[in-house]
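Action item from last week, closing it out:
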Amino acid sequence: MARMNRPAPVEITYKNMRFLITHNPTNATLHKFIEELKKYGVTTVVRVCEATYDSNLVIKEGIQVLDWPFDDGAPPSTQIVDDWLNLVRRKFREEPGCCIAVHCVAGLGRPAPVEITYKNMRFLITHNPTNATLHKFIEELKKYGVTTVVRVCEATYDSNLVIKEGIQVLDWPFDDGAPPSTQIVDDWLNLVRRKFREEPGCCIAVHCVAGLGRKRRGAFNSKQLFYLEKYRPKMRLRFKDSNGHRTNCCIQ
C-alpha cells in the first residue's frame, strides 16, 4: 500500500509553451519531485493549494515557487487569473523552451474514492486531504461508513478533526515505493480481523500522499517487485465459518 498510485506528471505543449501538471509532494518525497521538475526543464512551480512541503528546497535548485492558492473546487480569483496570464506571457518570452509546473493537493485530476468489497470486508482507497480540504474528506468518510483511517505516509492534516467525528486514525507510515514492514503487515491484518468481526458493515479507509492508484507505465517499481518475488503467503486471514470450517481469503 505504499505510495504506488501517484499520478504521473502530464506535459502539455502548445506552440512555444510547455506546462507540467504534477502531483503534490511532501518533504518526504520532495527529492523525487525535484528530479521530475529538472527532467522536464521546469523553471517555475505554481502552487494553487495549501503548502505541503518546504519550498526553500526547490528554490535552492534554481526553481521559482509561486503560491497562488484558492479554495478546493472553486474558480481562481480574477487576480490569480491575471497573475497567471502575465506569468505565461513573460516566461515564454524571456525563457524560450522553459516549462511551468502546476500542482495542487487534491489536484488537477483528483481520483475519486474507490471502494473495494470482499465478502464482509469493505475498504476505501482515497486521496489525501489537507486541513483546507478536510471537511470534504470527512464527508466522504461518513458517506461510506468509514470507522478507521490508516495513513501510510507523512501526515498532511490534523487528525484530531477526524477523531472528533468518531473516526479512528492510525499512522503506519513507511518509505515511498517500499514494502511495509512485517510489523505494519501484522498490525494491518490484526486490524482487519478485529474490525470486521466487531463492527459488521464498517469500512476501513487507506490513503497516502501520492495515492494508491498511480497512473504511470508499470504498476510496480523495483522495490515492490523484489518484495513480491520474495513473498510467501501465510494464510493469516483465513476465518472459520459458523460450522468451524476454514474459509478462503483474498488477502494473505
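Closing note: The chain is about 30% helix and 20% strand.
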